[in-house]
Write a structure and sequence with these properties.
Elements (H helix, E strand, L loop, with lengths): L1 H5 L3 H26 L6 H31 L7 H5 L8 H22 L6 H8 L2 H15 L6 H36 L1
Helix pairs in contact: 2-3, 2-7, 2-8, 3-5, 5-7
Length: 188
Amino acid sequence: MAQWILSLPLWQILRFLGIAAYILIAIGICTGIMSSIPGLHPVIKKTLIKLHMSSTNYGMLLGLFHGVITIIDPYMPFSWGEILIPFTAQNSPILNGLGTLSAYGMVLLVLTSDFRPKISKKTWHAFHLLSYPTFFMTFIHGYVLGTDTEIPEIRMIYLASMAAVLLLSLIRFTIGSSEKTYTTQGAK
C-alpha cells in the first residue's frame, strides 16, 4: 500500500491541492464579505453564506491535505515538526511558516464558526476578523512559494482574487460606515 501511494504523482497532487485550496479559500472570503453587506435580500444572503461555509470548509481540508502530503513527497519531503511548527522548515522557512500559520488560522476560523451559537457574537466576530490576515498569509505562501505562479493564468488567479478581496472589503466597509453615519445622523 505504501509503495502504491509513493508511486502517485505526489508533486503534482501537492501543487493541485495547494491551488485548489487557495481558490476555495478566496471564494470563501469573498462570499463571506459579500454576505455581510447590509441590505442584501435574505435569499441572496443565505445562498452566499452557504457558499461561504462550504468553500472555506473544503478549502481548509484541501489545504490540510496539501500540508500533510509534503511529509511523503519524495521530491521535497518535510518532517512533522516542519509542518506543525511555523518557521522551522529547512526550505523557505518564512514562506512555509506562513502556510502553517494559515492552516492554523483556517482551523480556528472554522471551529469558532462551528461553535458560534455557544460564544458571543462579539467574540465570534473578533475571531472571524482573523480571516483577513489568514487570507493574506495564504496568498503570500502560494504566490511567492508556489512553483505554478510562473504560469500566467495561475498568477492571474492569485492577483484577481487579491484584488477581489480588497475591492469587496472596501465596498463592505464603505457601505457599513456610511450606513452607521446615516443611522447616527438620522437619530439626531
